[in-house]
Amino acid sequence: MTPASEIARAVRAQETTAAAVTEAALAAIAARNPALNAFTTITANRARAEAAAVDVATAEGRDPGPLAGVPVAVKNLFDLAGIVTVAGSKIDRERAPASADAFLVHRLHEAGAVMCGALNMDEYAYGFMTENAHDGACHNPHDLSRIAGGSAAAVAGGLVPIALGSDTNGSIRVPASLCGIWGVKPTYGRLSRGGSTMFAASFDHLGPFARTLDDLALVYDVLQGRDPGDPAQAWHGFAPVLPGLDGGISGLRIAVAAGYFSTNGHPESFAAVALAAATLGVGTQVTLPDAALGRAAAFLITMCEGANLHMVDLRTRAADFDPGTRDRFLAGALLPAHWLSQAQRMRQAYREGVARVFEDVDVILAPATPFCATLVGQQSVTIDGAETPVRPNLGIFTQPISCIGLPVVCAPIAEPARAGTPRGMPIGIQIIAAPWREDLCFRVARALEAAGTCAAPPLVGDFA
To answer: Which residues are catalytic?
Structure first.
């Protein structure tokens, strides 16, 4: 798959047409999606119409936008005008089609992108594995027997160069790590969530996936914009990262997360962080105080907020939920109020403790996932001799970061075998900064990319 930045350059220079790029993308989706099950809806007519509009603009000498002719797709919790927003559920299929695009979808459209469809996901975004009870499991393009998120699989599998996802407790960073691509979870409140289906409103973030860091920076900049319709957006003005991407890391105080972030994972998770730290010459370690309690608070609050959003359907249509989703929502609905109150107090104390850590460092490196992609249907893994459930523990390193809304770039290890991953399966790391400092995450990511440590690893087999 040609990078988005190169596609846009070629379309703008009239070296190719958006129509030709779109037909190639639709052909790739038709050929590869049956094996991946990444797309749940393909919007071929819309894609062709948008491509035609881009080509008219270039022919008339008008600027078609920074994503001119770039094929894109979005997790199926984003509103697409004329399409039912199912959010991975059975129940929402009965709703009327969306009357307008989500805010971020509109941003993509205004930038000249071509919308190719909606992507598979866990029901109501409650999970990391995309083993959807209604649409079937999504498969990892590096090994079709293993799990992957729909948005990440679409990008890693070469169906589209850019996709949008959501991240409540790690659903951008975990799939990016499992599929070996780049992802960014912005600061909570940075990007609008208008026109998307919420899971847990005080945790939900939206953001992009890409196969290259340049593409990630390009689309992240495009997505920024003020949305008066999103009460959770904290508008700080445009803060583009692409112009400063090559600003270097001289003077940056970078550390490795120790303590909580150095246990409860397979060796390759920690080896990936060690590779990045060695590349950057980082020897400093820091501890995020009470990270385990922060994660516990995240569990309780997301369960409660998610249950509240779906209470009516839980009472009247419980049988229409995925049982795994339903049971966790029901547990959230039954939690005592004082547990939620205590969790919120813990969340605030944890936020304040981490803020003090960032008084002494600028960027923190941490694992993204505790292990590589597991088999579809696999329920547990062995960690330190103990059987550990897969589903709740994939987010063990991402949940403490989501809990307090910090910006993170998930960076893929270019040669996973150097980290000792089984069968060379992908794995990534988290590059974490203080609120509103996405620019620092991107600059450190660029240093790792320039050194050859981080990049999307090549695919093998049918998807090479």
So the answer is: 75, 151, 171
Amino acid at 317: R
Amino acid present at 374: T
Is the CB of residue 361 less than 8 Å from the CB of residue 286?
A: yes
The CATH number for 4-242, chosen from 3.40.50.300, 3.20.20.140, 3.40.50.2000, 3.90.1300.10, is 3.90.1300.10
Strand partners, 363: 254, 433
Find out whether 123 and 88 touch, Cβ atoms under 8 Å: yes
Contact present, 179 and 149 (Cβ < 8 Å): yes
Degrees (nearest 5) of the Cα angle 232, 176, 450?
Answer: 105
The pTM (predicted TM-score) of the whole model is 0.98
413 and 425 in contact (C-beta within 8 Å)? Answer: no
Superfamily of domain 254-463: Amidase signature (AS) domain (3.90.1300.10)
The DSSP result for 187-212, as a single string, is PTTSS--TTB--SSTTT-EEEEEESS
Tens-digit pLDDT profile for residues 26-78? 999 999 999 999 999 999 999 999 999 999 999 999 999 999 999 999 999 99
Question: What does the alpha-carbon distance between residue 363 and residue 341 come to, in Å, rounded to a whole number?
Answer: 31
Q: What are phi and psi of 27, to 5 degrees?
A: -65, -40
C-alpha 300/C-alpha 347 separation (Å) is 11
Q: Where in the chain is the domain with CATH 3.90.1300.10?
A: 4-242, 254-463
For residue range 75-117, what is the model confidence (pLDDT) as tens digits? Answer: 999 999 999 999 999 999 999 999 999 999 999 999 999 999 9
Q: Are 38 and 23 in contact (CB under 8 A)?
A: no
